[in-house]
Amino acid sequence: MRTEFLREFATLANYGNFHAAAEKLFISQPTLSNHIKTLENELGFELFDRSRNNELTAAGSLLLDGTQAALANIDAAVEACHRLLEEEGNAYPPVRLSVFVSRDEIYSALETRCPYPYRYTKYEMGKPHLYDFVQNATDIMCTYLLDRFPSLKKEVEVMGLHHARLGKEPCSIAMKSTNPLAGEALTRQRLRGAKIAILSSVEFGYWKSFLLDALGSDLELEFFPFPVETPDNLRAFDLKDMLLVSPTCMINEFFASRSDCAVHETIDGETLYMPESIVWRPREDNPNIEHVVELLRDCMKDQ
Fold it and tell me: Class assignment of domain 167-275?
């Protein structure tokens, strides 16, 4: 049973309707609904009576009391651990990072240059970008350039998070080896009318905007969402007659070694770069967050 689902359950019980609770949690209403249904399936009973304006069931009320007490105990225990670390001279807990972009470069920079304790959060495709911040599960997120993602930028600012430019990441283009575009060097004009697969409904608007700006809106490109739940699912993903434009590190990991796929690293002889942002939540009780942000920005400034 996932702790974040219990937090969402408590929030929904407090607000009384899915729309308000989803806004508070910075997730979509369908996502919240799916999480609550998953929780109910795990428990074996309904928490809300959908026929009575989502009132708590008797079992839901009983679980809410226990959930609120359990979450309060967890939060208190975490705070006690932080105080213990301070007393032992390990003043600050590890900085938590969610890394969606430039993984190899960021991992290398932290491994070779970071003197502060840190750890990575689990990467889940399709998860709302700010979900880890809402759940207080991360301190820093390396992601796409917020200036190209207005709705995400607004959410970041509403939540009081800080953000800045980070660097840029090279992208490559994968396709089936039988695709007519596979055999020759890619040019912008050869891409006219191409079908582009986007692997996340959450990121669909960003990637469409980015590619239209980078390649030109006159190419009559078509975009199709194909949400993928986990990175491992990419190993058998069927591109059909579509192209996939994605960070080179991901293309190399999941498509470059496949005999049924071809990969291009340039268009018109030039690399396509995706600009990036870094988002973080400053905390007075952990100044190392700011130190790690500065280190990453310094390491990535020449990219």
Answer: alpha beta
